[in-house]
Design a protein that fits this description.
101 residues, Alpha-Beta Plaits, 4 strands, 28% strand, elongated
């Protein structure tokens, strides 16, 4: 087998291994989804940066609010929820991803 054949064989084996490994989330990470009014979006962005990261966003579906998906360490969940409620004055929704609204 030449170098081209080896590259193809190793590439195929690596792709199969990655596919078999799946994409299980880190058990210490938590994904949350929230909505945020435009007027408090900057404050919510800063808050999220303190606790974790934005993994997805939707700025087009709702003319009054942005949708954000957040990933953070599960141990920080309670503190984040308190800060999120204070930041949004309790006007916004937040829930665990795939757990319903």
């Amino acid at each position: 087998m030449g170098s081209g054949g080896l590259v193809r064989a190793y590439s195929n084996a690596a792709a199969l291994a990655l596919h078999a490994a799946g994409t299980e989330p880190d058990p210490e990470k938590l994904r949350l989804q929230c909505t945020c009014r435009w007027e408090c979006l900057d404050r919510v962005h800063r808050l999220i940066q303190e606790f974790g990261e934005i993994t997805a966003s939707d700025y087009d579906s709702d003319p009054e609010r942005a949708g954000l998906e957040v990933e953070l360490n599960a141990a920080k969940k309670d503190a984040f929820l308190v800060c999120f409620t204070e930041t949004t004055q309790g006007h916004e929704k937040i829930f665990e991803k795939n757990k319903g609204k």
